[in-house]
Design a protein that fits this description.
mainly alpha, 3-stranded antiparallel β-sheet, two-stranded antiparallel sheet, 29 helices, 5 strands, transmembrane helix, transmembrane, ABC-2 family transporter protein
Length: 846
């Protein structure tokens, strides 16, 4: 076995791909490093905004206290509160000065400020901070001071251990894990076809020696990759002398608690967990290959347990025996505590058990699992009487592995979208907590202003009473009741309701409690009670959608009650302040679910189908130019009297069939799996759809400009005076079906375009490049010049799938002609025209 290992390792070391991998890692890290250095300091801006707001509040309170001192004087406790405010002001000015000088070493000053604030709060004064937020901030500042660290950029780091953490999360992700598995499978199949195993058996080597000798070098590759990637990722903090930032605390939300976890736990856990996970995959793969399973069946057998493990982790939470936590769902359950040590130890023991259990599999001779359904036997090509050319195309692609590889990529794209959506859904407790704390901060700030007014009212009463006493008037002074007291009490009640709600985060019915509590404390008036000019789409659609949901008894998507329209997208912000407001509003009302229909909705909304189309063009689709290459297929085809026209039609039909077939298959599989986790979903969920036109434009819908309430809009169409647009609601299932039809039309058009380019170009790779360039150029022009009068005839206008279906594209183009029906017709007609042009372009024989 030692000789086999030495032979394999020597071949790997001499391979040029090892050098290429190192170069790719270096270039990737340098590129990401350069991008991060050019990004704005998000953390610095956030700190500046926080402390500027605190300084503003303190200045306001100091001015109020001094005014009271001049008029009626201050009590002893109020005097101490004023002195404390003056001290806090000095600390905050020092912090602000440091931040303006790009110095983020403010931990000591911040701790002094928090300590002084607690002294201030003990006096009879006006609190202006959320004490829970300050407690979290204090713990973080104490850790930073302990390790002599300054605040650093967390979103775009580049010279600290946070940058290393960011790199490790990319380099040791589930994607790279499955890439290693694919590389191992490719190498194994290649060596098997080259009779390497037969050569080793000729040398009288035992099966265990051969297979262990083959497996161990790949496990060494995994270890080598971990060492190389970890070392390169650690270089930035090492070179800049910031290695001590491995102790930098990161907030991790566990239920209603925010815990501080040092960066080094990620740096330790991620590489080890990833390495064990990949090793388990490789051991499983070689054992299955020993049983002579095909590549497709092997991937299926490996993928199913992983999918089941992921479903279990989502449905039932964390289990320490579940290996899926090696790569996902580990931050909340393992890193805040020290459970990661026994967990990794247990997973390493599991790997050892796998290696030991593989011995009888490797030792067996001629003993295979011969299940007819699972066992794959390559059959000799025997075409049926009909569709021979299509069968021939499929056979070539299948034997090259293109069909399977495309299937894997498609499942990865669609499934990866779902996993991302589901992970966001799993992170909802953190989002809930942030929303609750933001609302509590709002109430604290509002209470401060109302308490100031309350004290000023009391001060005026005292002054009036003093004036009466000086004048000697006999009229009895009746003290008025303070009108601001009840407002303060209501806000305090709302704050305590949110505090109780925070403690219930993580319960199964929490979304319902969250929505009920938010509706209770907000109590916003109906838009119909407001001025017409305030009837924007967001306000109207949010209320009308909630009414529809209530009438149809549909559970709303978490988290916020608002439906943020495209008119209030952060990209439309007028300035930085406006952007901050729109961004916060969008994040507080982001919709996430874990049902099958919701996953499809997000997949379409993100326009991920463009990547799916790129997969077909790059890997799967074939054209006439492919047959001009010096391969065996051209020699075979020359022996037949087959016209270019027949080949052209067969390739066009094959591309279309395989694209439609794989998309439906992959989408169906992922939808079924996602339905196991979150159910099918509400097919009748109302989704906002924009309608082009307005009353002034003479829009075809029968809406009267004198309407003061949308209750008279019996056809379900509403008009927004604020945004000057009509809109209505359509069910999620209908919009998904429309999107599916539009995608079918897009594929039909692209297929004809690819076939036509391949008809005129002699090289397959040039065909791919030209097709992609045409698609990118057409899509860019359609996006830049959407409002041109003729742009509705451009097929590429309709590649923005969801925006076409929900009507937003027609608003951008300012034309009702840009819609789902016209888009489908134009794409299909354009595809037919391109197909006919290619079909009639020549009559030569092959």
């Amino acid at each position: 076995m030692k000789k086999i290992i030495a032979f394999m390792v020597k071949g790997i070391i001499k391979s040029k791909y090892v050098l290429w991998l190192s170069l790719v890692l270096i270039v990737f890290i340098l590129l990401l490093y350069g991008i991060n250095t050019t990004q704005s300091g998000a953390t610095k801006k956030e700190l500046q905004a926080t402390f500027e707001k605190r300084l503003e509040n303190i200045d306001f309170l100091i001015g109020r206290a001094l005014n009271k001192k001049r008029n009626i004087g201050l009590s002893e406790e109020a005097e101490r509160g004023l002195d404390s405010l003056l001290i806090q002001e000095e600390y905050l000015k020092t912090i602000e000065s440091k931040l303006n000088d790009e110095d983020l070493d403010i931990s000591s000053e911040n701790l002094d400020y928090i300590k002084e604030y607690r002294v201030y709060e003990s006096t009879i004064s006006i609190p202006y901070q959320n004490i829970d937020v300050l407690h979290i901030e204090q713990r973080k500042a104490e850790i930073l001071k302990k390790y002599n660290l300054s605040y650093t950029e967390q979103e775009t780091p580049y010279n600290t251990a946070l940058f290393t953490k960011k790199l490790l999360q990319l380099l040791f992700s589930p994607i790279t894990a499955f890439l290693f598995l694919l590389i191992f499978i490719y190498k194994y199949k290649s060596d098997e076809q080259n009779r390497i195993f037969d050569f080793l058996k000729v040398k009288s080597l035992s099966n265990p020696a051969i297979y262990y000798g083959y497996l161990i070098p790949f496990l060494l590759i995994v270890v080598g990759y971990i060492i190389l990637a970890s070392f390169l990722s650690l270089l930035p903090p090492l070179v800049t002398g910031n290695l001590n930032t491995i102790h930098y605390p990161i907030e991790v939300v566990v239920g209603a608690d925010t815990l501080m976890v040092p960066v080094w736990k990620w740096l330790l856990y991620i590489p080890i967990g990833w390495g064990i996970f990949v090793s388990l995959l490789l051991v499983s793969a070689i054992c299955l290959f020993k049983q002579r399973f095909s590549m497709g069946m092997l991937l299926t057998i490996i993928a199913l347990p992983l999918i089941i493990a992921y479903i279990i982790s989502v449905q039932f939470g964390f289990y320490i025996v579940n290996p899926i936590h090696l790569i996902v769902s580990y931050e909340m359950h393992l890193l805040p505590t020290h459970r990661y040590t026994p967990y990794l130890t247990g997973m390493f023991v599991l790997l050892i058990i796998f290696l030991i259990a593989s011995y009888p599999v490797f030792k067996s001779k001629g003993l295979y699992l011969k299940v007819p359904v699972l066992h794959s036997i390559r059959k000799q090509y025997a075409p049926k009487n009909r569709w021979k050319l299509i069968q021939f195309e499929h056979l070539k692609k299948k034997r090259k592995g293109h069909v399977l590889f495309s299937l894997i990529l498609l499942v990865g794209i669609i499934g990866g979208t779902y996993i991302f959506v589901n992970q966001q859904y799993q992170n909802l407790p953190k989002t809930y907590l942030l929303v609750i704390e933001e609302q509590q901060n709002f109430y604290v700030e509002q209470q401060m202003h109302w308490k100031v007014l309350e004290e000023e009212f009391d001060m005026e009463i005292e002054m009036m009473r003093a004036d009466h006493e000086k004048s000697g008037e006999e009229t009895e002074f009746v003290s008025a009741e303070n009108p601001y007291t009840i407002m303060i009490e209501n806000m305090d009640l709302s704050y305590r309701l949110l505090d109780d709600l925070k403690n219930e985060i993580g319960e199964k019915n929490f979304p319902e409690k969250f929505r009920e509590t938010m509706n209770t404390i907000r109590k916003e008036p109906s838009y119909k009670e407001l001025d017409r000019n305030l009837w924007d789409v967001t306000v109207m659609a949010s209320e009308e959608q909630q009414r529809i949901l209530t009438e149809k008894e549909i559970t709303p998507w978490p988290i916020g009650p608002l439906w943020i329209s495209h008119f209030q997208d952060p990209s439309t912000a007028l300035n930085d302040v406006h952007y901050t407001i729109l961004k916060a509003n969008q994040e507080r009302n982001t919709k996430y679910g874990n049902s099958g229909l919701f996953s499809v909705y997000k997949y379409l909304n993100w326009n991920m189908m463009l990547f799916g189309m790129g997969v077909f063009i790059l890997l799967l689709w074939t054209s006439l130019s492919d047959e001009r290459q010096p391969n065996s297929s051209i020699n075979f085809m020359k022996t037949k009297t087959i016209s270019f026209r027949s080949i052209y039609v067969s390739k066009w039909a094959y591309n279309l069939m395989i694209a439609y077939g794989l998309l439906v298959l992959c989408g169906g599989i992922v939808f079924l799996l996602s339905s196991l986790i979150g159910g099918i979903g509400e097919s009748q969920y109302p989704i906002l759809v924009y309608a082009t036109g307005s009353y002034e434009d003479g829009f075809t819908l029968e809406l009267s400009p004198d309407v003061t309430s949308n209750e008279s809009a019996d056809d379900g169409v509403f008009y927004s005076y604020g945004d000057n647009v009509n809109f209505y609601f359509e069910s999620l299932l209908v919009l998904i079906m429309k999107s599916g039809m539009l995608i079918m039309a897009q594929i039909f058009f692209l297929n004809s375009l690819f076939s036509l380019v391949g008809r005129w170009v002699k090289n397959q790779y040039v065909t791919i490049i030209i097709t992609l360039l045409l698609v990118f150029t057409g899509y860019f022009l359609a996006s830049q010049y959407t409002s041109a009068s003729y742009m509705f005839l451009n097929p590429f206008t309709y590649f923005d799938t969801w925006n076409v279906v929900d009507g937003w594209k027609s608003l951008v183009a300012n034309s009702a002609a840009v819609n789902f029906i016209n888009g489908s017709i134009i794409l299909f007609v354009s595809g037919i025209l391109l197909f006919i042009i290619g079909l009639l372009a020549g009559r030569r024989k092959a």
